[in-house]
Amino acid sequence: MNERIRPHAERAGAGGGAGLFDDHQPSNQLVSVSSGPYLEQLPVGNSTVGEVRHRFADRLDIDPNAQAVLDGQPVDDQTCVRPRQNLMFTRRAGEKG
Amino acid sequence: MNPLQLEMAMLRLARAKEAGVPVSQLIIQETKAIATSPEGASASMPVELLLAKVAAGQMGTGPAILPDGIKAVLSQGPIIIWVWESPPRVYQFDWIANDSPKAFGQGTKYRKVRLALPYVIMLAVFARSEGGLPDLLTRNECFFRSAPLKRFEDELHYPALLNCSKFDPPDGQPLSWICTQHLRSTPKMQSREPDERFCAGFEALRHCLLETAFNHSSEHHEAASWFSESRRADPRLQTVEAWQEASARDPLFVLEVPWLKTGHTLRQVTDRTFANLQAGKSRIQSAAGLARIIFNHAQS
Fold first, then answer.
1. Residue B58: inside a domain
2. Considering only the top CATH level, what class is A27-90?
3. Cα distance from A9 to chain B (closest Cα, Å)?
4. What ipTM does this complex have?
């Protein structure tokens, strides 16, 4: 039997995930979350900072005293994180020089 | 090869000789390795080249699971360089205030600024001690780029950051030195496990670069900071306030800024570091170098 190639339209996205432009799919909820050396794209869009902190505390070694910074702006744990934002947990301390 | 295997091999060799069976022989004489086949054919090559060929093709991350963003690991002699890249993003920094009574140190006044940065490249430089444990050195560097690193031949640009120092003259010095005077060693940096020491040293440096306050120390202790030097490169960098406003308007403007060119590729910068630290001197090139390893092993 001859091999039949599935048309593009029927193929799943890379890794079998959702298409880039599919609405209401996890890939569309991605937030860039970083803590220390970790930097991950996580499907936590529309979660609060506190929820992200609690859920990923162990996985990303998030210091309980780390300041949450959303797109460069310090925020509290009640702040909602929107998809495609950058959330950083930083331990600001000390100075250089 | 463990001692038992070595002993067995020696025994087999002795028996083969006793039985008159021809064997291959390898003699290391000064800087030459001379091989003789059982048929009596002979050939030689430099010891250094032989060792490089033996090690060629072995690719690994050493003892460590690499942190996110490590793009390359390079080593020469006892020196190891981790090349880290962070994508463009907006950071919040503690930056020296315009009305600070001090330029650095105790009494310096800081304010918070939100600055977009392009790709940040950090070179973390480690040295292995005689015992094999790595230590973070104080010769680490930071650079900017407008695109991700794809090849070792990609050029690096100077980072428009305070406390990333310019030396004048630059000979023998890092091109863009990260001031680590106040970097404090953490317990994991003193671990007995090499992987913990690598990762803890890297994290301490990353924290020092991006999470501790920026001041005018480089302007006093070295020739200048690369922030001061870069202010003329683009009106949006003339002051930190202008940079902050441009970041708020469009965080991706940093990908269009003509950052100051170093004139060096990543490969040239890392080669420069190896040369400055005389990493090549520790390369094994002769029988004496190999003998030193054997004697050190016997004593350990």
1. no
2. alpha beta
3. 31
4. 0.71
